[in-house]
Amino acid sequence: MKVLLISNMYPSREFPSYGVFVQNTEQILLNNQFQVDRIVLQKKKTKLQKLFGYALHYTKIIWSGLTKKYDYIYVHYAAHNAAPLLLLKKLNSRVTIITNVHGSDVVPEVSSQEKFQPRVKQLLKESAKIITPSPYYMSLVKEKYEVKTPIYIFPSGGVNPDVFYPFLDRNEAFEMLKLDPNQKYIGCVSRIDVGKGWEYYLKAIAHLEEATPTFYKYLYIGSGKDEDAFHNLAEELGIKEKIIHFPLLPQTSLKYVYNAIDAFIFPTVREGESLGLVGLEAMACGTPVIGSKIGGLKDYIIEGKNGLFFQPGNEIELAEKLWFFMSSSEEYKQRLSRQAILTAHDYTINVISEKLPRIFND
After folding, report:
1. Which among 58, 201, 202, 355 would be 20 to 30 A from 39, CA to CA?
2. What is the pLDDT of residues 175-213, one digit of tens each?
3. How many CA atoms lie within 13 A of 359 on its CB side?
4. Residue ranges of domains in the chain
5. CA–CA dist 192, 203 (Å, integer)
6. Helix or strand (DSSP H, E) at 130
7. Stretch 232-257: mean pLDDT, rounded?
C-alpha cells in the first residue's frame, strides 16, 4: 500500500522532539511494509521562515496529489493542512484522505485558531477515515462535528519502550541531569505556554511550601512564549530556590527526568489535551502521574491506582495531592509505580503497532 504522509510538525536535528509522534506513525507503517512518501514541515524560528515554509508545504501537497497516485493521503493536524487538501479534493476527487486530528484541531487554544474550524469540519467530512488519539477525543469529534465518517482510535504513535523504561539504578538519572542524589524531586514536562497550567504548578508549590516546607525540589522541563512570566512568578511566589528549570529536552534525555522524579505533575487546563503522551512516557518509567482531570488524561489515569487527579486550575487541590503523595508510605508509592508501568505497557509501540495498519486495511 502506498501512502503520502502529510504533517506540519516533524522532528529535525535542531528540534528532535517536534512532532516525534508523527515520525513514530511513519515508522510503524514502514515496519508493516507500507510504502511511505512524506511532505512535512519542520519547526521554523521566524515568521518569514514559517510563511515561506507553509507556502512550499501547500504547493508540494497539491502537486503530489495531482501528479502521483496514492492509496491514501494520511494527514496529521487537520487545522493547518485542510486548505490545500480541500483544494486538492476539488481538483482530484479520487484522492482518499485519512485525517488524524490532535489537540487544537478540535479545541482551539487561542481565538486566532477559531478561523480554521469551518475547514476542519469540511476536511473531516471529505475524509474516508478519521483517527483520534483517545476515546475522549473521539467523543469530542463526534459531538462537535456530527460527521458520518468512520472514526478510529490510535494513541499518537505510542510510547517507545526502548527509550522510556524504569532504571535499575536511579543514580544514572541524577548524574546525567547533574542533580543531587540525596535530594527528592517532583517534575513537570511541558511547553511554557497558555493552557499548559504551569502557573498552577508554581502556585501549588508555593501553597505547599508555605504550609509545610518539604525536602523536595521541583523540576520544570520546557520552553515557550511565557518563559519570562514563569520565572517572574516563581520569584514573586518566593519559590525560585525550589525550582530547577531545564529547557525543552529531546526524548532521549526525558527518560532521565522521569527516572529522577518521584511523581510527574500534569497541570494542563486544555480541553483539547487529546491524549497527554508525556504522562504515559512518565508512567513507562515507573513514575505515577498527578494530573488534571481533563481531556485524554481521564482515559489512563486511575485515581489511587496509578496516579492522582485534581480539578483543572485548582492549585489548592494540587497542593493537597502533592502533600498526600509525599507523605504516603513507600509501599503505596511503589504500588502506584508498578501500576503506572502496567498502564503504559498498553500504549507502547510494540503493543499498538498492529492497530494503525488495521485502520488502513479496514
Report:
1. 355
2. 999 999 999 999 999 999 999 999 999 999 999 999 999
3. 26
4. 2-157+350-361, 171-345
5. 15
6. strand 129-132
7. 95
